[in-house]
């Protein structure tokens, strides 16, 4: 029997029995973890209020073996709030839908429980912090998060040099299967010809050039979001359920 302590973000919750919940978290040190929180659905439980989606918490786990993730689910025995991002996110539809898509993305990219995914964890914390503070438009924060999540998981799209032969850009065509922009010689069936502004927007979001991203017209933002969605769908092999509700 062992105690573990870690900080993490609550991704989702599921009812268990009459008063318990299964809490799924993305933690700093142990990656994605599912744990049972007992009694948290009771009205008087202050513990349960800290374990809602979007919450950034310091959590103590009790596991029956020497590893946190083993045969059975560990127990979540204590939690302290680090940042209650959900308070400002759930009251605004645009922030809420963008945040929900971010939580689902983080869970999909950490499909092996117990494996550390520090970069994904830090991206999620940063993205939720930006959403809750209203630093940028929610759909831009989401697209930036999706692009960077793809990048840290080894699927960084190219927005300048040809993704196939490396020919310096700008290049006209874009192919999700090829890995981003491609030149005329490397063009493959299914390639599209996006506007230069949409490609510039996505490059700015990936590198964190917010002034350039926020200067884009709405039509180019919508076009860029479509490319991000298609690229993410290709690499996840199925789309995000929550993405269809995001306001563009």
UniProtKB/TrEMBL annotation:
DNA replication/recombination mediator RecO N-terminal domain sequence ranges: 1-68
Residues making up the signal peptide according to the UniProt record: none
Alphabetized Pfam families for the sequence: RecO_C (PF02565), RecO_N (PF11967)
Keywords carried by this UniProt record: DNA damage, DNA recombination, DNA repair
Entry-linked Gene3D superfamilies: Nucleic acid-binding proteins, Recombination protein O, C-terminal domain
Family as reported in the entry's similarity comment: Belongs to the RecO family.
HAMAP family xref list: RecO
Function statement: Involved in DNA repair and RecF pathway recombination.
Protein name: DNA repair protein RecO
Organism expressing this protein natively: Streptomyces kurssanovii
């Amino acid at each position: 029997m062992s105690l573990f302590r870690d900080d993490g973000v609550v991704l989702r919750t599921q009812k268990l029995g009459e008063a318990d919940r299964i809490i799924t978290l993305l933690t700093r040190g142990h990656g994605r973890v599912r744990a049972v929180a007992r009694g948290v659905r009771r009205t008087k439980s202050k513990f349960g209020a800290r374990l809602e989606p979007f919450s950034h918490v310091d959590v103590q786990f009790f596991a029956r073996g020497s590893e946190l993730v083993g045969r059975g689910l560990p127990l979540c025995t204590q939690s302290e709030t680090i940042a209650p991002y959900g308070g400002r996110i759930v009251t605004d539809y645009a922030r809420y839908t963008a945040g929900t898509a971010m939580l689902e993305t983080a869970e999909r990219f950490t499909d092996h429980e117990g494996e550390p995914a520090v970069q994904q964890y830090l991206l999620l914390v940063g993205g939720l912090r930006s959403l809750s503070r209203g630093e940028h438009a929610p759909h831009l924060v989401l697209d930036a998060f999706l692009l960077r999540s793809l990048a840290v998981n080894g699927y960084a799209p190219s927005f300048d040099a040809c993704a196939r032969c490396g020919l310096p850009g700008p290049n006209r065509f874009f192919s999700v299967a090829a890995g981003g922009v491609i030149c005329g010689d490397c063009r493959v069936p299914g390639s599209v010809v996006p506007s230069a502004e949409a490609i510039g927007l996505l490059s700015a979001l990936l590198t964190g050039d917010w002034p350039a991203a926020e200067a884009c017209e709405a039509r180019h933002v919508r076009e860029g979001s479509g490319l991000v969605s298609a690229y993410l769908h290709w690499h996840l092999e199925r789309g995000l359920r929550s993405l269809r509700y995001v306001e563009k």
